[in-house]
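Below is a filled-in request sheet from our internal design queue. Each sheet records the structural input a requester submitted and the sequence that came back. We keep these sheets so that new team members can see what a complete request looks like end to end.

REQUESTER: design group, bay 2
PRIORITY: normal
MODE: inverse folding
CHAIN LENGTH: 300
BACKBONE (tokenized):
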């Protein structure tokens, strides 16, 4: 009898961890950490420069940035409803003229943070979920965090602690602002275990605050590293196996997901050879990921 119970529990575990057909755009997931796959080829990852992917806790909304230049970018999204994924749309709070980038969901999914140049320099902003499922007007996180310098790449814990990137000390470093009484406090730089004399950037913090992924120029243009916190101290960062010789950055690990997402300039996938008499195939070929620009990748 105990063996039957064991088999049942194993099967139940496999079932609970199995990917639902519609999740992640219905794509076949990556198998290993060392062989990342392009995510959403032709839909999310195209011949434009895509980056900064975030997924809602229930998996039905995917937000990401499309960047055309340092002053021209927009936050776009797709949504699953009525048994299908929508086409890519511009987020209602975003526009090209604001140079919006780097959306990230709070762990509860009720708040979405992003960086924007809408008031002159890049600041951290957020929108809150309305009762009708839409978003509020953007709110600036406040002068304790946002300065006359640029602030980038917000990421938050379940307690509200806000991690972001800034050059307050000259180099690009990772900072954290506690959330107390509904106010983001004066930020502190992470320890020298994380912040080196070089540039560290694009940090993603886990919901419980115990794991951080971030970009660093230690070994080239940019690689993704991981560090864990125990008793208040960060471990020596380790370089992830998914890194390539190209720029790899913008890590994220969505809540309730066993997959890891990031941006890379390693090149997407070979374009399908278009038949000039098949218009649809030509259009798809023109829209597929190419090397040199940013594309979204995922790994296990």
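RETURNED SEQUENCE:
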């Amino acid at each position: 009898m105990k063996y039957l119970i064991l088999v049942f529990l194993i099967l139940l575990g496999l079932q609970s961890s199995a990917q639902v057909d519609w999740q992640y755009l219905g794509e076949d997931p990556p198998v290993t950490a060392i062989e990342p796959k392009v995510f959403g080829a032709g839909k999310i990852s195209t011949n434009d420069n895509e980056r900064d992917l975030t997924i809602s806790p229930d998996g039905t909304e995917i937000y990401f940035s499309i960047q055309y230049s340092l002053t021209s970018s927009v936050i776009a999204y797709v949504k699953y409803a009525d048994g299908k994924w929508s086409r890519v749309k511009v987020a209602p709070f975003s526009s090209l003229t604001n140079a919006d980038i780097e959306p990230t969901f709070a762990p509860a999914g009720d708040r979405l943070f992003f960086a924007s140049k809408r008031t002159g320099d890049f600041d951290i902003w957020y929108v809150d979920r309305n009762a009708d499922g839409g978003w509020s007007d953007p709110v600036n996180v406040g002068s304790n965090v946002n300065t006359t310098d640029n602030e980038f790449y917000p990421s938050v814990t379940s307690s509200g602690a806000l991690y972001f990137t800034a050059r307050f000390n000259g180099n690009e470093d990772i900072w954290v602002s506690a959330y107390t009484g509904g106010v983001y406090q004066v930020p502190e730089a992470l320890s020298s275990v994380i912040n080196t004399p070089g540039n560290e950037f694009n940090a993603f913090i886990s919901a419980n605050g115990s794991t951080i992924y971030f970009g660093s120029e230690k070994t080239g243009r940019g690689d993704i590293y991981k560090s864990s916190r125990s008793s208040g101290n960060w471990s020596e960062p380790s370089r992830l196996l998914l890194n390539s010789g190209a720029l790899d950055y913008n890590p994220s690990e969505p809540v309730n997901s066993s997959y890891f997402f990031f941006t890379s300039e390693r090149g997407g996938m070979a374009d399908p050879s278009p038949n000039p008499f098949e218009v649809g195939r030509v259009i798809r070929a023109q829209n597929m990921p190419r090397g040199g620009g940013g594309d979204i990748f995922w790994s296990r």
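SHEET NOTES:
- Residues 3-17, 279-286 have pLDDT under 50 and may be disordered.
- The CA atoms of residues 76 and 90 lie 4 Å apart.
FILED BY: M.R.
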